């Protein structure tokens, strides 16, 4: 679970900014709180702000830092995402830091990177216990050389594991385009069975498997197909029907390999099929074209190719995802959040994209009513959520663009509003900032 996220010198965020899922002082809506041994966290948070205020840039910061952790610094792209508010930021480091809960422990993992030079400039990992920080490792860059400070005493490693870790640090001394966490997880094999040293794997796997970022222009994830398989699409069908899409049934139909050639180059299709056949760990692949969602799956060493279809009436007529409305597509994209029992953190930018305001409101309301083990963080313009009968004070965040063009992030918690305050009216009246200022002009 996510506790805190700090970042700075990234896009419109010039200064170090702090977003938190830790509870504030309010006691309302206790069912919105998840309790852990050392901390209590919120299960939901919403961010408001005018257009171009920087809401999406916070989501981009999470997505960008996640990709950097999983893949390293690619040589093929230009890293010009430092904040251009101050020209000198080109020479400064960009920082990302996460505090996360994994099992019984809270960890603080972060790094700094010079985006213009594409070089990692620092990295650290701490365990947080009883308001104390226990250093696990710190990476410092001095004179074009990585220095690793490993707290072997805290890790309590056996001789074998300590030697292995020392080899990794030695091998990484002159690697500047990849994080130490990334290097340790490149072969996808655990460093060891030792619980202490496997923390390096646990941190990496949290970003890989527990943090999901959904952007407005992203295709549906494979979760739609996953749930179709579970109950022949019954739950997804009921969900889409309840939200008034007109969809009565969701199912899959089997197609052959040559059918895919009509939508994408045969060379790509054959390459994917070959990979699934040969790779013991890869059992399926999801392909999204402009008109269809296809799944290529290995079943009993045989390749099956299926297409997701949608039925709107009792007649035997099926439609592809490309023939569905943008609203239906969006609901398919975010269905997994309500259906999953995984302890995942979902970050959804513009959750209300293509949705009627009533659908957005009811979707969030349904999420808050369900006892799900994960967290949901969204950006939206659906202001009817601004109601203390629905949300806690500490669940509401704002992003406001300053006069210089940089973004400022802050919580409604700082205003200490009473529970009976009409916060929707106060927001629209400009009390909390982060609303557009319209200036009249002549055409």
UniProtKB/TrEMBL annotation:
Residue ranges occupied by any ATPase AAA-type core domain in the UniProt entry: 44-141, 178-387
Organism, scientific name: Paenisporosarcina quisquiliarum
The protein's name in its UniProt record: AAA family ATPase
Domain of life: Bacteria
GO terms of molecular function: ATP binding; ATP hydrolysis activity
Classification via InterPro entries: ATPase_AAA_core, P-loop_NTPase
Coiled coil: none
A Pfam family: AAA_21
SUPFAM superfamilies tied to this protein: P-loop containing nucleoside triphosphate hydrolases
